[in-house]
Give the backbone structure.
Amino acid sequence: MFKQRAGIQATHIPYKGSGPATIALMSGEVDFSFAGALTSLPHIRSGRIKALAVTTPKPSPLLPGVPPLASLYPGFESTNWYAIFAPAGTPAVIVNKISLEIANAIQLPDVREFMAREGAEPVGSTPQEFATFFKSEVSRYAQVIRSANIRAE
């Protein structure tokens, strides 16, 4: 997605997790990396790596002064999100109960504080809202895959 928006050539170098990728960045093995907050924040704070931009639409309170990549490449957005899925056919009453409990949990001050400290923004949504969001994410990334002519190996 970044290569398409920026119109650049770059080689993807796969690593077995964000830890080895961050070490590669710190050692100069790679020139840049898209890293999550949990892995990169300690190294940003220590000065071992420099945050150039965030991939969220808005600036992050964890990285004041670091602009969103969308300020350079309008429309660019790549955020991490987490969801809880249930097997197909799970009764709606159970799905709705789990959803309600999660929505209640993420409203707790200690949960919100923890998530914010770790670079996460608690959202919470209904199963229907999440289904709409999920479909839009699949569509967005499918377009990136088609444009890059990516094929499964």
User: Anything to note?
Assistant: The chain is about 45% helix and 0% strand. The two ends are 19 Å apart (CA to CA).
